[in-house]
Each structure stands twice: as C-alpha cells, then as structure tokens.
Amino acid sequence: MIEINIIKTRLEKFRRKRMAFNFFSIYFAGLLFLLFIFSMNFLANKAYISKIKREIKTIEDKIAAEQEKFNYIKEYENQTKILLKKMNFFTTALKERILWAPVLAFTGEKVPPGIWLDRFAVKDKLDKDKGMNTVLISGYVLPGMVNEREAIDRFVRSMSTGTIFGEVSLKEVKKIIQNDKEVIAFHMECILKQKRGTDNASDVSD
Description:
Blueprint: H1 2-96, H2 100-110, E1 115-122, E2 132-141, H3 148-159, E3 165-178, E4 181-195
Antiparallel strand pairs: 1-2, 2-4, 3-4
C-alpha cells in the first residue's frame, strides 16, 4: 500500500509538472505568435509608410515642375500685359496722328505756280463730335507775281476739291516782309475728311 501511495504521489507531481510545462509552452507559443503578428504588421506599416513617402516625393516633384511652368506662364503674362500697354499706347497715338504723306502730296498737286508754302500745322482744338482734325497752312505769294489775291483764291478753291479736305477756308491775308521784300501772305484752315483712327487720307484725290 505504501508503494502504491508513493507511485500516486509521483504521478501527481509528474502531472503537475506536465501541466505547467504545457501551460508555459502554450504561453510562449502564443507570445511568439503575437510577436510575429506585430512584426509583420510593423513591417507592413513600414512598407506602406515608405510607399506614401515615395508618392509624396513624386507629388512634390510634380508640384515643383508645375510651379516652374506656372512661374513661366506668370512671367509671360506680365510681359504680355506690358506689350498690350505699349500696343494700346501706339494704337492711341495712331488714332490721333495725321497721315501727312497724302496731305502733302495732294497740296503739292493743287498749289499754283508763284505760291510758296512755308508752314503746315495741326490745330490744337479737335472737333470731338465729328472726330475731324484741322490742318493749318501758311504761305505767301512770291514777289513779282501779278494778281496775288486771285492766285490765293484759286489755290483755296482747288484745295476744296478731292477727298482729302472736307472744308477749306481762307482765314487771313496780309502784307509781310519776306527776305527784305514785301509779299502777300495768307493763312488758311483745312478740315480733314479723314477721321481719327482711319486711313482715308491715304487715297490721294483727283
């Protein structure tokens, strides 16, 4: 009976040791499994973070490239604005200027022999309603010519024809001293048919 009790006691101790060993084995196996899961999760997160960093770097590179394009477009836009301002200035100047070539050509055809023209100018006051410019012409009759006033009147009538001037008027006739000689001088105003900003005066009249 004593031997049986001893065997039972030893068997009971063995079972306890076996259960403790199994418990710690399962515990450490579970712990290792959890560590494995956490490690895999960590590696996966690390890889995902690296991927996100690469994508962010790619996006930053694209933004930098687009920024260069944007800066180029901005600079081009500024240059375009400057060019447009200059173009507007020249357009305004073109609208306000007089095309002198057809005016001088037409006047040269109409001036009679014996008359000398010494001044062409533009009247400061502009007919804003009609948009017309007025050309001021001054000259004098050369000494020794007979019928000075008739030559001046003929010149005025001749200037009234054609498509350059709409209205020609003789404003003043007087005697002056020119090169130590007395001559008949005149002053006339000619309203251009050419309106501001048009090229009508380029057509030389008959």
